[in-house]
Design goal:
By secondary structure, the chain is mainly α. It has five helices and two strands; from the N terminus they run αααβαβα. The relative contact order is 0.20.
Length: 117
């Protein structure tokens, strides 16, 4: 969700999202909730985070604490947003709340980056 929001709102930067324990497929609930926002992620696939991605990144933002447990990202960690993993949500409304949290954080990040140029 963060990658899709960022790449929709940012004109000057690109995000690549990956997980330390990537799912095998995209959640139908998340696909539906992103469609509510006018973003089609149905063709996207979860990506496993790799050290090459970390090396090439200019900034790394974790959504949760699983990155801390993975160990190899400590050096380049920019920040952790501490957003719960939607995979553990019991209802679609709970996932929607997380989506909205991610959207707000991404919009703030895009504004910050645009100010820097």
């Amino acid at each position: 969700m963060a990658e899709a929001f960022f790449n929709k709102f940012s004109k000057n930067h690109k995000a690549i999202s990956a997980g330390t324990n990537a799912a095998h497929h995209m959640s139908d609930i998340i696909i539906d909730l992103m469609k509510e926002e006018g973003i089609d992620i149905s063709n996207q696939r979860p990506k496993q985070l790799k050290s090459e991605m970390v090396e090439k990144a200019s900034r790394i933002i974790a959504l949760g604490d699983t990155v801390k447990k993975s160990g190899f990202l400590q050096v380049k960690m920019a920040e952790n947003w501490h957003i719960p993993d939607p995979i553990f949500c019991k209802t679609k409304d709970d996932v929607r709340k997380i989506r909205d949290m991610i959207k707000e954080r991404v919009l703030n990040l895009v504004k910050e980056l645009d100010k820097k140029g």
